[in-house]
Write a structure and sequence with these properties.
The chain has 180 residues and is mainly α. It is built from 5 helices and 2 strands, in the order ββααααα. It has a two-stranded antiparallel sheet with strand order 1-2. A hairpin with a 2-residue loop joins strand 1 and strand 2.
Length: 180
């Protein structure tokens, strides 16, 4: 059974930096990403929907630039769950939100950096301006993804993260990690 791929691979006229798709997102966080149609799912919704299924796969055939974006976001969700799971006590929703927001704005490697985990699958940005743009875009997407992940984790109203999501904290998509 093959892994699930991004539906945004078929989108026409998507900007790419390196070979990573810069897709519109639904957000209130300032940044370079364009606004997506609020009635349609965006790449963040797709990441949260496909995370648990795709994290069971060790291999992933990249079929387009949106798949590369999806991979980076799935690995980031995995790092978020690991961070929450490694806390000494079970974090409340507010504590989890603060912790993941801090993680989202921390310095992180991008394609082309020496310590980026998947450099063999990603082309580096063509210029310094593209590199800065990609870092800003990924920071914005990571902040929005963190906020939506916390909403999903604490959706049941018990004040504790969902055990069905937290059970994936030790799973590694493609046996990789972004290194956070």
């Amino acid at each position: 059974m093959p892994a699930y791929h991004s539906s945004f691979n078929d989108e026409p006229d998507v900007r790419q930096v390196g070979n990573l798709a810069i897709l519109p997102i639904k957000t209130r966080i300032r940044g370079p990403a364009t606004q997506a149609d609020p009635s349609q799912p965006d790449i963040i919704d797709e990441t949260l929907d496909l995370f648990r299924a795709n994290s069971l796969f060790r291999n992933f055939e990249i079929k387009g630039p949106a798949d590369r974006t999806l991979i980076v976001l799935i690995l980031y969700v995995s790092d978020c769950l690991t961070k929450l799971g490694s806390a000494r006590t079970v974090p409340t929703q507010i504590e989890a939100s603060k912790s993941l927001n801090t993680l989202s704005v921390e310095s992180f490697p991008i394609p082309g950096d020496a310590n980026f985990a998947l450099n063999s699958h990603y082309a580096p940005p063509a210029s310094r301006a593209d590199s800065d743009y990609l870092r800003q875009y990924l920071t914005q997407v990571r902040q929005e993804l963190s906020a939506r992940l916390v909403e999903k984790l604490y959706a049941d109203g018990t004040g504790k993260p969902s055990k069905w999501w937290m059970s994936f904290q030790k799973r590694r998509f493609m046996n990789r990690s972004l290194g956070n």
